[in-house]
Amino acid sequence: MIGETENKGDNNMSMGAVGTLYGVGVGPGDPELITVKAYRMIRECPVVAYPKKRKGGKSYAHEIVELYVNPEEKEMLGLIFPMTKDPVVLEREWGKTVEACWGALKEGKDVAFVTEGDPNLYSTFIHLARLMRELHPEVPISSIPGISSVLGAAAALDIHLADGDEQVGIIPATADKEAMRQAIEHHDTIVFIKVAKVLDLMLELLEEMGLGGKASVVTKVTSPYELIWRDARELKGQELEYLSLMVVSK
């Protein structure tokens, strides 16, 4: 049974040693979609780090794993990630985040940083790991793959992303209309992440390309809050949550 046998094969914690920083992908939203290895690492690591909202609310990743974590048995380390482009603020706040993790790691404690989706696909863990390597290169860093929202969306929409020689693109949606046009032209299926902020622009572009009926949108896929629009045109003029993506299947 899961959890009955402790296997420390991947755990690097020992007295006097520097702890390991693990990026643990916990899937797109459904707690049952975390891997067995992710479950084990969350259970074994004495410190569980997670993105923390400034106003104190639970982060999405925290909600996914709370079924598996007893906060009375763990050191819960909430990390704030700045939502700004100000380089001074970014450097300062990211420095605080790295040092918060280092405080536990230097005591020999392994830290499991939980992130929705996969830690190596458009994740905050990527920058955290990069800075940790720069500032504290002695820290071992490892990642546990997770199921991406991209794959969750394909399942929720009951569509295939790519078959045979078809090409699929995973593209951050931006206000660069020409770049978005080229992405659509050069792929058979395109998943646009971070689409909420440019939704109307994307809908306008799809209409121009004769693909208005080929796009679907999913918000917080596989979670209890999941919303699906199989025809994205229904969303014109509306606002979406940040964790929304659009799938264009030609």
What does this structure look like?
Its EC number is 2.1.1.130, 2.1.1.151. Keywords: Cobalamin biosynthesis, Methyltransferase, S-adenosyl-L-methionine, Transferase. GO terms for molecular function: cobalt-factor II C20-methyltransferase activity; precorrin-2 C20-methyltransferase activity. The longest helix is centred in the middle third of the chain and has 19 residues, at about 85-105. Helix content is about 30%, strand content about 20%. The model is unreliable at about 1-15 (pLDDT under 50). The chain is α/β, with parallel strands linked by helices. Helix 6 links the parallel strand 6 and strand 7. It is built from 7 helices and 10 strands. Strands 3-2-4-1-5 form a 5-stranded parallel β-sheet, with helices on both faces. The chain has a 5-stranded mixed β-sheet with strand order 6-7-10-8-9, sandwiched between helices. Helix 3 packs across helix 4 (about 125-135).
Fold blueprint:
Layout: E1 21-25, H1 36-44, E2 47-51, H2 60-65, E3 75-79, H3 87-105, E4 111-115, H4 124-135, E5 141-144, H5 149-157, E6 168-172, H6 177-185, E7 189-193, H7 199-208, E8 215-219, E9 227-229, E10 244-249
Parallel strand pairs: 1-4, 1-5, 2-3, 2-4, 6-7
Antiparallel strand pairs: 7-10, 8-9, 8-10
